[in-house]
Amino acid sequence: MSTAVVLFHEAIARRLGLSAADHKALGVISRGGPLPAGALADRLGMRASAVTALVDRLERAGYVTRAPDPADRRRVLIGALPGRGPDLAGIFAGLGRDMTTLMSRYDERELAAVLDYIRGTIAVLNDHTTRLNLTHDTDAADPARGEAGAVS
User: What is the tens place of the pLDDT at every residue in 69-96?
Assistant: First the structure.
């Protein structure tokens, strides 16, 4: 399922002239921005240099802008340009219809179980993503740690 989701988002991103990572980052910026590059890097689990290149691509595509932070002029805020977000209504309308058809096959009790499973899976994945991101710098500095040195 995760592969299907990734491939779906990759197809959406290609339609927008972006990568899947750029598209997901745009979503983070649109929902949580404007925000400093460091905060964006933390949310995406990326290094600052990679975020700079990502923001450059989103800026060239016309989706985001950089502006000085009014609270700290040394810092730059990255924000989504109003009205410039990609129009994905057609894509998600069709997906919504098909998912509604799929969900209609289940009764309320079954849907509750599915929802519980999905929420639980998201919580577990978020927890492990945080752990991996927190241990990434330590593991990179000490290649001998590998899997045995990972925090669980």
Answer: 888 888 889 999 887 766 777 788 999 9
The rounded distance, in Å, linking the Cα atoms of 27 and 36 is: 15
Domains and their CATH numbers in the chain: 2-84 (1.10.10.10)
Rounded to two decimals, the pTM is 0.63
Q: pLDDT tens, 13-31?
A: 888 888 888 888 888 898 8
Backbone angles phi, psi at 80, to 5 degrees: -75, 140
- The helix/strand count (H/E) of the chain reads as 6, 3
From CA 64, how far away is CA 150, in angstroms rounded? 36
d(CA 19, CA 96): 23
Q: How far apart are CA 57 and CA 18, in angstroms?
A: 8
